[in-house]
Fold these 2 entries.
Entry 1:
Amino acid sequence: MATFTQCAPESVQAQPVVELVLALGSNYQADKYLPLARQRLVALGEVRLSTAFQNPDFTATTQLPKPDYTNQCVHLTLTTPMSLQQLQQTFKTLEGDCNRCRQTEPNQIRRVTIDIDILLIKLSKENNSLSKKLVSKPMSDWIIMADRYPFKAHEEAGVEELILTKL
């Protein structure tokens, strides 16, 4: 992943995205909400899945135990290119459709039905100001979302399984 370019999401908001890698996570009814999210993602294009991992919540303490997360990465090749901004809104809507509640009371354990984060994107090959800057890195067209890097261990494992082993 050292050869991948990092960008702040704001710098590529309007660029047409053709592929992306997502991190899915759920600590509440994962057996219900992960399949629902994956089903909705299939409507956007071709989906490949990494192994699902069960991980402890890294913010849990002995005084405040929290439920484990089920995490999985998704490689999505879009049927129709979309801007990063459109994708972010689509995923927020999908989270809402899965009853994602972002508000919690202090000291209340957050129940996350589904969380969708964009880890990597691949832009359309159309010439644009960013693609001209990326010409020096022909090894990889993948762009890491700088606000998500460095990846958590399960995210890195998922990316390696989906992308790096397929190059």
Entry 2:
Amino acid sequence: MNTRTDSSTDFTPIDQDLYAKAFQLLDPDPTPEPAAPAASAAPAPVTSGLSAAPPVRRTGPVEKTLTDALALLDTHGWARFTLVHPEGARCSIGALRAAAGARNAAYCDAGNLLLDEARRQHGKKWETIPSWNDSHTGAQVRSVWEAAIRRAHHMNI
């Protein structure tokens, strides 16, 4: 078995504080509504039901699984030809499995979305994530991960 890690992967660590701040700016917490006034003789005004605060967008399970898996690749490194390298680097499917924690619906959907994006960028011949992962550079693999995360975000899954 040929086991090696690619030390020039173009994966850069994510600054979690900067990442959290960016999402805070994009999706601020809603402001709490004021407490209801005490009962009075005057009827309450009729409102349209629209609140002034924008709705809070929650990250879907597929987007979270993909984002967590990419963070694992950033932290531990990306590998080819092995699920998990003894030094901790992982291939794409190894990172996806670790991030999901189980072969649940989010894991399956994230894998399908990742493979679909790999086929969009690198041709329809790819049948599995490992075969695609092992045949591309770190930059190409990262591009697919990022596009899959964007798609999951826009699909709200």
